[in-house]
Amino acid sequence: MDYSPPSSTLWSGQAPSPEKSSQILIREYPHRALAIASQSHAIILRHSPTTSEAIANGSLTSVASAHPRAGPDGTASKCMVEFSPASDQLLAGYRPLTPRPIFGTLGLISIGRDAFLCVITQASRVATLRPGETVEKIEAVQFFCLNSADYDDVVAVDPYDVDSDAASVYGQSLGRRDVAVEHPCLELQKLLSNGTFYYSTDFDVTNRMQDRPADAVAFDIDNFDESFLWNSFMIRPLVEFRSRLQQQERDALDASRILTSAIRGFCKSWAIPQTSAPLKTTRTGLPSYLTIISRLSCRRAGTRFNARGIDDDGNVANFVESETVYWSPSGVVFSYAQVRGSVPVFWEQAAGLIPNQQKITITRSVDGTQPAFDKHFAELEQAYGAVHVVNLLSESKPGELELTNLYRFGVRNCPLSQPGEKQSRDRALLRETEYDFHAETKGPQGYEAANQIRRYIERSADGFAYYLAEEADDEGETNGRSSSPKSRRYIVILQQEGVFRTNCLDCLDRTNLIQTIISRMAVESFLGHRGERAASDFWSRHANLWADNGDSLSKIYAGTGALKSSFTRTGKMSIAGAIADFRKSTTRLYYNNFADKYRQNTIDNLLGRLVGQTPVILFDPISDYVSYELQRRSSEFSSNEKINIWVGTFNLNGRTDGINEDLSPWLCPPELGSVQPEIVAVGFQEIVELNPQQIMNSDPSRKQLWEKAIKRTLDRQFSREGDERYVLLRSGQLVGAALCIFVKASSLHNIKNVEGSVKKTGLSGMAGNKGAVAIRLDYANTPICFVTAHLAAGFTNYDERNKDYATIDRGLRFQRNRGIGDHESVIWFGDFNYRVGLGLEKAKELLRQRDLEGMYENDQLNLQMVAGLAFRFYSEARITFMPTYKFDLGRDEYDSSEKARIPAWTDRILRKGTNLRQLCYSSAPLRFSDHRPVYATFECTVNIVNEKLRDKIGREIYDRRKSEVGSDTANLVADDSEDEDLIGYDAIEPGLPPASSDRQKWWLENGKMPRSSISPPKPESPAYQTILNPKRPSNPYTPTEEQDWVNIPRRSESRLSSFSSMSTSPYEHVNHSMLLSSSASNSMPRKTPSYEPSTLPTKLGRLQLNEEAKTAQFDGTPPPPPPRRQTGMNASGPSSSANTAPQLARKPMNTGVPIPPARNGTVASQQRPALKTAPPPVAKKPAHLTAPASPATSTNPSLTSEPTTQSDISKLQQAELLRRFSANRQESTMNKDEDVSRLIAKNSGANHESHHPPQLPQRNGSSANLVAPGRVTPAGAISLVGLAGHDGRPQLPERKAVANSSAQMRPQPPAPRRSQPVDLLGDDGGMEMGGGWEALKPT
């Protein structure tokens, strides 16, 4: 990494560099939109009201129209968003909204019905953690309204700029307003501009250094810790929008530095000159940096007397994470974190005007407090490891003593503090030290006596260690040629494994002084391990930083600076300091009693916690569509590749004499052949001797020696032409357990998101002599996790080993709260300490016989895995090597000491993942330890995405989709369409489509024809079927109590042929599998005959055979067909059924001419045939319709026939019939009728027999062979050819009689729709409803 010499831009008071700034632009026509434009890209935002808002306004007005401002109603504001490369065309019509640059956005917030964009208008650099990682302090912000220009010239006076924007926006002055308007976000603006908020566009400032990537160049917005992200409510919509972008656009948005993560608390750096730096370096002229960062949690944020104690989610008031960071030009980074927070019990304290007399009230019993107490410390343990509580409350003050007793009770009953042997080892991670600060510092030494706390916490401080990373060289070269220049990157050497939690009553003054001492202890430990000491000038800067930190945190919580800060700075308490403390105490009384209430309301508004407050919703329909399509077409741009992984584990027994030995039998076994693995994962146990002095501390020096030995062996073995050198990717250590990951130099570009973590399980979780070290990485798009572990020892302690595994598997966490099980491939390896459950003699006998199967049958790990008690879903290859424990040093003989340990396979390698295939599993003959090293090789299938091809496909999908939907984006500039007014409007009622326009119609899907499919509901029982209710009004919007569907008994299809076309909508398609083919008659109605099953015709139609069987079992009397639904359409309108023939034009007919008899003469002229129903319009005719009718089904010819079936002719034949009928309509009625009958008989008589169902008796004495006079077909009704009154001959549509013959040749228009209902089953004259459908209601 290259370092530039320090410049003035690194120091406080300097504005951020120009490349970190943007410009905010506005366009007012045709619709108001705001744009944040960086040097390369722009993000455009435009408000879009919802339908409910438009209705409240009285009309669906344009987005740009002003609308009345109302209070919050729970309706979320919607905004369209677009992110694109900046161009003159994109930003045409935009102009600057403010003359000064902006330095990022804090997000969006809605106030009432207005949506506001918050941007940083002034900032100054205050800290440099290391080169490339800077922190800026927010000094001024502004809120710009997205949907209204009313507040554009309402700008609060900027205290940092005499030339305020208040009079410069659009060249307007506040003087043009008669009445001053207060900006709705004024209080938020004051809060964010008070100098307590910080941000960084270089790195994730919400996470401590240990919880983010070691290299400064990495910046992962997805890893924000929302506990410390104070603008999480406002920035969340933009972060969610970012997550929906493609990777290329996402990287561009991150590089634009538009999105900003803001913390609240304190941040400041001191530059340490080279002469005062504790670590010397050969790089002259470069200073070291000492930094303090304090992050105040926003989970239970509030002012002093408004936020006390704990809540039910385990969050405590005034919770702060303070991190001390030191960077040296030698390439060393040190970090140490500690936390403070209110006493974690439910308590309150009312503000009062008398100092130190505010009464403390306990609001919940100890039993009711314990669940929240446990949750709080469980989260601390998961985030930091073991927790050591330092309680500074006084025992002489009754209120504080009561809190101490409750605190002590909670710790004593917390599962984390139980050290019992029967408890799981991961649950004993909580210790407490009670230190009465006031009592300890009353003596002559004063506050200097506080240093005596060191002896109470020294042991835990050594065990917690610290975070340490060092720069290392990457040698990106292959043998024979150089592939890349040498570069430097950070390697994690050590990690912090615990945290101190300090508290007093307010967690301000006493707490800050003790935390200063703890921070100094950690820095001294770091320097001591390197053999260095710091000068007094260094410690003076350290003390001043902590004093400034205390003042800043105290102003946020209590309103004034911290007390005792003069002692923190100088180490002595002066009279001036005492007077300053008295003044601060008095000022606190004013703030706490009169100002904190309003400050609390503003904080809640910023965090989105007010009642009814909703976030702003961002939507980008095109990007969402592209994401879905890319996921569906992932196979087009992704492929699989196979890589080789070598994994090895070795218990070193604390010995170092093997460092200089040849490790190639283990690291480069013969099974590899000429293959050079892409990844080499090496796990060590007992890398140091596990004595009482070592188990509480991790010394990285021994691990570094073994790293050099491994790399030396790999470079020597893979030195052939074309082989590549290995680089150390990352290593980690937990006292004696260590894990080192080496990768080929050419594989580095495929590896990302490398993270490490540790988990202690030794000595009730406080010591690291037992536990695990894990490293995870993404190889291309495949997440892989390596875990090396050293579990509990002892022949019979397999249950403790199971608990250790469960502790590690459940408790070990990486960034984003990822666990071990969240990876596609997982490899566990290490000294698991599972033994073989046999006696010594029996085991040795089996080994002499090389009966490994007999040994393995008694292996404890094998039995525990089979029982599902450990390593569930993991697999182990077949063991073909001898047990690896325990050997005499330097010999191949098993333990010959007095303990005579039984040989066992304690060192194992397990795998999980369908993409892993194990190639070998064996041990190596290295004899300098009492264990033998074990190794395995794997072939791993990884998924590789072609990013260029993916981006190309994504761009094609984006362009095509944009051309389909037009320019309906946030940057719409066309003003000749009403589509813009409707973008973002939701439906008025649930289930209805959104508003439509000339271009976008919900009933047309990309130009497709409108369609609707109606499926009837299931009937109550199989004996019934569901049909449309014929009594429902034709207008679906007419109020009615009639149901849409009714149930009727199932009968033969001939009874239901007229039920299929009852819809009044021309777009409605009725499911004909349930509602059968249509058949209607305009003939004279008849009364229902007596039911005689023997006289019924053979069942015809489209019912399935199994339905016929069901129907045959039903013997109820069927109702007659219902009347056809009347429509308001004319005769030429679309048919209401897909199977209904077009309606013929009406023509007068000679009513005195009798209808000629049928040609076959089988029945009298009063009889009409029951023709077979036409087949449905499907690709294949059902089998039961192609079978010939049986003669046994013919009916008695003496009975009359019910005209309810159609001729079994095709639709083409019917169309031909209609054409001929229309062409010859000038002929006489008799000849025409005879021709039609002859044509039908010709088409149907040869293949079908006529069957004659019983004929209904005529009503009112009507004659069957004459057309009823005065019969008029209602408008919209449909007459079908083929329904005749003679055997084998259709009856023509009825005609009205006219006076002259000229009218007879002219078609008549359809009769107007009658207002009264028409009974198709009643008689022609009276139209009574008696005896018709009204008399037979469906069941």
From TrEMBL:
This protein's record includes keyword Transmembrane: no
What InterPro entries does the record tag this protein with? Endo/exonu/phosph_ase_sf, IP5, IPPc, SAC_dom
> What positions does the domain SAC occupy?
188-559
GO terms (BP aspect): phosphatidylinositol dephosphorylation; protein transport
Q: What is its EC number?
A: 3.1.3.36
* Bias (Polar residues): 1127-1142, 1191-1209
Its main subcellular localisation, reduced to a broad class, is cytoplasm
Q: Does the keyword 4Fe-4S apply?
A: no
UniProt-listed SMART domains: IPPc
Write out the entry's keywords from A to Z.
Answer: Cytoplasm, Hydrolase, Protein transport, Transport
Q: Which domain of life is it from?
A: Eukaryota
Region (Disordered) residue spans:
1008-1049, 1111-1209, 1241-1266, 1282-1339
Biased composition (Basic and acidic residues) is annotated at 1286-1297
Q: Where is the signal peptide?
A: none
Q: Name one Pfam family in it.
A: Syja_N
- State one molecular function term (GO): phosphatidylinositol-4,5-bisphosphate 5-phosphatase activity
Subcellular localization(s) per the UniProt record: Cytoplasm
Q: One GO term of the cellular component aspect? A: cytoplasm
What family classification does the UniProt entry report for this protein?
In the central section; belongs to the inositol 1,4,5-trisphosphate 5-phosphatase family.
Protein name as annotated: phosphoinositide 5-phosphatase
Q: Which organism is it from?
A: Cercophora scortea
